[in-house]
Amino acid sequence: MKRMKVTGKELALLCGMAALGTLTFPLGAAARTVDSVTATAGSTAEIVYSGETLTVTNGVESIGNNATGIRAVDDTEVAIGKDIYVHGANSQYNNSYGVYGDSGVQVRVGTDIVVESDAGAERVRGIYIDGGYGSISSTPDIQVGGNISASGINTIGIYVSGKNANIKVDGNVTASNRNATGITTGGTSKIYVGGDVISSYDNNGTLSYGISVGAGNDSYVEVAGNIVASGKLTSGVRMGGSGTNKQIKVGKSVVAGGESSKGIDTNGDGVSAYVAGDVTANGKSSLGIIVQNDAQVTVDGNLKASGEGAKGVELRDGSSVTVGKNIEVSGTEAIGINVDRWNVSGSGIEINVGGSFIVSGDDSYGIYTGTTKNTALKMNITDDLVVSSTNSSTQSVGIFSAYMPLEAVIGGKVAVLGTGVYGIYGDAGSDIGVAGNVEVAGAGSLGIQVLGGSKVQAGGIVTGSAAADSIGVDASNSSVTIVGASSIEGAGSTGVLLRKNDAALTMSGLMTVNGANAIGIDIKTSDTNAVLDGPGSVQVSGTDAVGIKLGSGTETTIDSWNLNVADSSAGAGIELGNNSKLELKNVASQAAADGVLLRAAGTATVNVDGSSHLVGDVLHDGTVSGTLALAFAEGSSLTGKVNEQGAGVINLEMDNAVWKLSGDSSLHQLTLNNGAAVHLTHSDGYHTLTAQELQGSGGLFKLDVDVRSLESDKLAITDASSGSHVLDIYQKDAYEPSAGSTEGHGLVLGSVTGTADFTAKDREGSLFYKHYELGSKASETAGYDTDWYLDKIISVDPGDKTTTTVKTIMGAAALNYHTWRTDNDQLLQRLGDLRQSGDGENGVWLRLKGTKISRDGRFSFENKYTTYELGYDKVLRQTDDYTRYGGVAFSYGDGSSSYAGGSGSNHNKAIGLYGTQINKKGHYLDLVLKYSDMDNDFSVLDTEGKKISGDYDNKGLAFSAEYGRKNALQRGWYIEPKAQLTLGYLDGGSYFTSNRVKVEQSHIKSVLGRVGFQLGRDIDAKTNIYIKADLLHEFGGGYDVKMTAANGDGLYQSADFDDTWVEYGIGAAIRTGHNNHLYFDVERTAGSDFKKDWQWNIGARWEF
Q: Where is 818: in which H helix or E strand?
């Protein structure tokens, strides 16, 4: 069989559509070629029968009513070199076709298909295939080398009434008249358009489609250019009916510009769309893309809804959309992505945005859902969500998800800029995460609102200065987590509003509340049970602003927070509504002078746990009558004033807690138990604490007094009192009355009604504790039963109660003495075993010594120090009977000391001369003369918290003589008894402590005796190991100290250290080379108040 060849343009088609190459038609007896085809009204120009092939060199024209250019029967092929032109007449019975073919006909058009009609014409088609194809072939069934233009009324460029059409158009497809369509297929089809698809007619909203595909599976439409629906009620591409796995791919952009137009209309199931460019809905009520039934929309560019009432994308039935760049919604009442209210089912809706989401139109929505189905809306925005409105009478919403839980992740911030604007609204079960801040800049606006069981996490909350009466986050029966800093500046604005049961806020950053009447955190409704977890901080400074507000009937727990009332003009750190309850756990606060930390109206309960420490005033403003009941647990504290006004009542209960008053205070009932303390001494000046009732027992009141001017803090109990309490009296400016002084007699410290009993606490002075004796008498003030006054001041015997100053002075002196005495040690520790010496006549040695000593008793201390020592000696004489050495040594000691109330440091510098004789028969004599220079400093705190410091130095001289003899036993064992006597003198001195006590210390004479033995074994000529034990006794060691205080009080103290104790240890001496030696030992003591807890000693000696 002969064949003719017609060459087409190559094109790769997605989803299995093969490249177009050489088109082949069978020729022979069934092949015909004509120059052109022209059909007039009522005629058919050419008929091609089954199996035939018709080639038209030029074009095909079909003009008039019921005109058909080519009628192709069954499986025929038609190749048209140029264009098809069809013009239908004005008749409702008009049927005009360029090519009319049966199922299986293949048509090739070299250039354009143009279909026109007169007004009133019907069924005008460029190509009409009746019944479609059996299956989709690898090459197009219909190929158009140019454009398709359906510009007439009721015209269609290509119409395949059945399914499985395979259509390729190299140019544009345009439908530009009423009821016109560029390409229509009845079902499953593959369509490729190399240019744009345009549906542009606009005349009273009659339907017009660029491409329309009916029901069926696996349909595919690809448009290399743009899809533009610019006419009213027009659609660029429509894919309808049932089916699955249907796809639309757009190489550039989609624009729905006409009123109620649709760029891509998938009025059917299972259609997914991909757009390489932007999707824009700028016509009134227009829609860029609509998909449903688990379909997917991917837009690589931007999604824009700028027309009035326009929608960028509409999703139904579990569909999803991914936008590679930004979503911009600027039209009035426009919607960026609309989730259809009645048609959501399946697995939910998913939305991904690669850039920002910007909503700026009045009454517009970025995302809108109104479905009643319980499916999730999942959304991911890479950058910011920005919502704004220029019209104060309208409302715009960034994301509105009603009746549908919202799962949103926003990589940037949520910014709400207009008046009355909402950022995000999420229904029950929503989970919203915002990496940046939620920023509200417009009046009456709301950043995020969620309902029951939802979660919100954001970087911070910011309400700008112009955001009056706005709210950052409104959470009902939901939890909120804030991880960054927040700023609430708008007048009357609220950072976080919590409502209903199980409301929770976790915050780790600082929230500043600067706006007038602003609220940082508002616990709103009476059925709210809220938990606020930290570590969060709230700082309040705006006029009448409130950090945390508890509404009437609410119950709130605040855990691990810090509150700061930075300005006294602020309303309160925490405001308590009527019948509210508050639990504070591990809460700290600060406040400016007169700053109100807790403000109550009506009845409220506050429980403070032992790890909470509150600073700021407590006020019941009396605007609503009721009782504020405060309970402070053991270890907690309150610093500030407590006052009740009008009909307000305050009851304060403290159990081993502390209240530090910053000014005059008044309350109804004060209950103190188990050492609870009230410090009226906390701030300057004198203050009065007034309570109607005093209850409990074991309370302590700290009072400032001036016994010279007879001024003091005062306690006033007006109605009733009970229990035993203590007055802790502080003399102003640390003045100390001298012993026997009558200053302060008769000074009234408290006026009381009831049976309460008061005693005074002893106060620590410099040299003596002062015992304050109280007296009581009938009150001289009307309305009170008893005045408690200061009767006399008595100095306590130091033997019964010793002050920190005295204990430290005596302890420091004892430390210097014992450190000096311990530093005078023995020959073996200093030089090792000289019997192992080599041939050298000169020796250099170095040793390092670490020591911890302490003393128990009245003047206790502890000292840990390290000594570095360097020495040199030489052989002075050597005979057959003995070797005599002479040498000099230098040492430096560095110590760290501890006392009952603090610590210190000490240093010791010394130089020593020694002479040593080693006899051949085993006995030796060692003589040492040593001069020491010691300094000592200390810093301690007394029981009043006052710092006491001092420093001084001593110089000492000691001479020691040590004798011993080594007696050999069997197998290298030996025993070496020894004795030592050390005579010492440590000079005295005088100095002043920081609390103006003059110290004069006498010298100390020491006579220290030692007897003991060393039991060891010479492993060989180079190695010696041993144990040792000594009995020591100090025959001297007594000294006196005179102390004189600034007020003239004087005290003499004596100490005597004539102890007896035992010292024991273990050591070794090793000759490591011909003239090199290494020696070490450890030792400790027992049997005395003095203890050498441990001492280690290591040395090395070189001879030359």
A: helix 804-822
Does 708 lie in the same domain as 838? Answer: no
What is the domain count for the chain? 3
Same domain, 762 and 810: no
938 and 898, same structural domain? yes
Residue 132 corresponds to which tokens in the numbers above?
């479609």
Q: What is the pLDDT of residues 6-24, one digit of tens each?
A: 333 322 222 333 332 333 3
CA distances from 32 to 3, 49, 79, 144, 943 (A): 12, 11, 10, 21, 122
Are the CB atoms for 950 and 926 separated by under 8 Å?
Answer: no
- Amino acid (1-letter code) at residue 238: R
Cβ atoms of 271 and 248 closer than 8 Å:
yes
**pLDDT above 90 (res 312):** no
Neighbour-count burial of 328, counting CB atoms closer than 10 A to its CB (0-12 exposed, 13-18 middle, 19+ buried): buried
Please work out, in degrees rounded to the nearest 5, the angle formed at the alpha carbon of residue 149 by the alpha carbons of 147 and 152.
165
Give how far Cα 499 sits from Cα of 275, 326, 476, 521, Å: 43, 34, 5, 11
- Lookup result for tokens 């020694």: 914
* 377 within a domain of the structure (yes/no): yes
Q: Do strands 189-193 and 165-169 pair parallel, antiparallel, or not at all (unpaired)? A: parallel
Q: Are 743 and 734 in contact (CB under 8 A)?
A: no
Strand partners, 1061: 1032
- The closest alpha carbon to 64, from 152, 177, 182, belongs to 152
Report field, pTM of the whole predicted structure over 0.85: no
Instruction: Report the length, in residues, of the chain.
Output: 1104
Three-state DSSP class for residue 957? strand
DSSP sequence for 673-712: ETT-EEETTSSSS--EEEEEEEEEESEEEEEEEETTTTEE
Spatial contact of 48 and 78, defined as CB atoms under 8 Å apart: yes
Residues 815, 782 share a domain: no
Structure tokens at 345: 């089912």
Q: On the CB side of 1053, how many CA atoms lie within 13 Å of its CA?
A: 26
Would you say 707 and 732 are in contact if contact means Cβ atoms under 8 Å apart?
no
**DSSP string of 204-250?**
TT--EEEEEE-S-SS-EEEESS-EEE-STTEEEEEE-BS-SSEEEEE
Which carries the bigger pLDDT value, residue 10 or residue 496?
Answer: 496
Q: How far apart are the first and last CA of the chain?
A: 122
Neighbours of 218 (CB within 10 A): 17
Question: Is residue 1005 one of the residues assigned to a domain?
Answer: yes
Beta carbons within 8 Å of 428's beta carbon, 6+ residues apart: 405, 451, 452, 453, 454
Q: Nearest-5° angle of CA 96, CA 102, CA 107?
A: 80
Q: Domain boundary at 458, 490, 522, which? A: 490
Query: For residue 394, what is the DSSP state?
Result: S
The residue range of the domain holding 484 is: 302-490
Q: Give the containing element (helix H, strand E) for 529.
A: strand 529-540
Q: For residue range 181-215, what is the model confidence (pLDDT) as tens digits?
A: 999 998 889 999 999 999 988 666 567 889 999 88
The pLDDT value recorded for residue 28 is 41
C-alpha to C-alpha distance for 1095 and 352, rounded to whole angstroms: 73
C-alpha distance from residue 864 to each of 84, 851, 1026, 1089, 1093 (Å): 110, 6, 26, 17, 10
